[in-house]
Specification:
Layout: E1 8-11, H1 23-37, H2 41-48, H3 53-57, H4 64-75, H5 81-99, H6 106-115, E2 119-124, H7 129-133, E3 145-148, H8 149-152, H9 159-169, E4 176-180, H10 186-193, E5 196-200, H11 213-217, E6 221-223, H12 229-234
Parallel strand pairs: 1-2, 1-4, 2-3, 4-5, 5-6
The site of magnesium ion (MG) has 7 residues, from loops.
């Protein structure tokens, strides 16, 4: 039996290293954004959320302002640039609050992995605020290669987004462990390119990304806490 050693760990962001965005936070902010641009509240909240998240995650709406303007156009609202800017600021501040509050043990776990010689990557389905704010975060210095879907142009589980991280890290997918809280098909997406994948179970009832079919049936590797990641990475694969 041969063993491929794990040389890199690639993390999901929301729910794994920083809190998930809750429905309540999303909604309160989107309502404020609607008021800022003078749009009808319910329509704006729906179109900013369900209506356009795919477009901002793949960078087709490349800035927060472009996203706000797109929704306003759909609603026949014509705010001036200052009001668009205020709406974008509210959304950016929400993202900043989340990004600047890493989950317990996240920084320690990343530091331990680095000290043990692992390369560290990130693959996040996210909108433009995240790469914009990334340099401000305490996570940035600890992660060698961050891949943001809005910059890459595709979302998980598209194999290209995982491969992009591996290429940046200079490792083969077989040498990578992917760690995530299991939104959509992100875990099987990682397995499909040849990575190992580990689920970290978190409370997600209130999360905006609560669609997690794989979490219900997951039989693979599992972390009880981020503190376990070093042991699982070191476990290699049969
Ligand atoms: Mg997540």
């Amino acid at each position: 039996m041969t063993t491929v050693s794990t040389r890199a760990v690639v993390f999901d962001l929301f729910g794994t290293l920083v809190p998930n965005l809750s429905h309540a936070e999303f909604r309160a902010t989107a309502e404020g954004m609607a008021r800022a641009v003078g749009a009808p509240i319910e329509e704006f909240v729906y179109l900013y959320g369900e209506g356009t998240y795919r477009l901002r995650f793949t960078g087709e709406l490349p800035t927060t302002e472009a996203n706000v303007e797109y929704v306003c156009r759909l609603l026949g609202v014509r705010p001036d640039p200052a009001r668009v800017g205020e709406a974008a600021r509210l959304r950016t501040e929400l993202t900043r609050r989340i990004l600047l509050a890493p989950l317990p043990r996240a920084l320690v776990a990343l530091a331990e992995l680095r000290e043990s010689g692992y390369a560290i990557g990130l693959v996040s389905d996210c909108s433009s605020e995240v790469p914009l704010l990334w340099p401000e975060t305490e996570l940035a210095p600890l992660i060698d290669v961050p891949v943001f879907s809005c910059r890459a142009g595709f979302r998980k589980p598209d194999p290209r987004i995982y491969v992009l991280a591996c290429e940046g890290l200079g490792v083969r997918p077989e040498e990578c462990l992917y760690v995530a809280d299991g939104v959509g098909k992100e875990l099987s997406g990682a397995l499909a390119v040849g990575m190992r994948a580990a689920l970290i179970r978190v409370a997600y009832d209130e999360a905006t990304d609560a669609d997690r079919p794989e979490v219900l049936t997951w039989k693979g590797l599992e972390l009880q806490a981020l503190a376990d990641v070093l042991a699982i990475a070191a476990g290699g694969r049969p």
